[in-house]
Design brief:
78 residues, mainly alpha, elongated
Length: 78
């Protein structure tokens, strides 16, 4: 009986470690993607990057409309 409890505890610990590893990998992926976007688009500020992402999100998602959050103040393409 004690052996089964130890096995269950071990499995639970492994699951916890794997979930943490998954979170870390997702965080690293997001950072890598963000860094590549900033480099590729030659964007110098977080605000500008967010504005471009919001503006382009409709095209990426197959929608013709621009995000409601986009205020259109920078309506030119680079």
């Amino acid at each position: 009986m004690a052996n089964n409890i130890e096995k269950i505890t071990s499995i639970e610990e492994q699951i916890k470690k794997l979930k943490e590893r998954q979170k870390n990998l997702e965080r690293q992926m997001q950072q890598n993607i963000g860094a590549e976007l900033l480099r590729s688009w030659n964007v110098s500020s977080e605000k500008e990057a967010i504005e471009w992402i919001q503006m382009l999100a409709g095209q990426v998602n197959g929608k013709d409309t621009v995000s409601e959050e986009w205020d259109g103040h920078e309506d030119t393409t680079r």
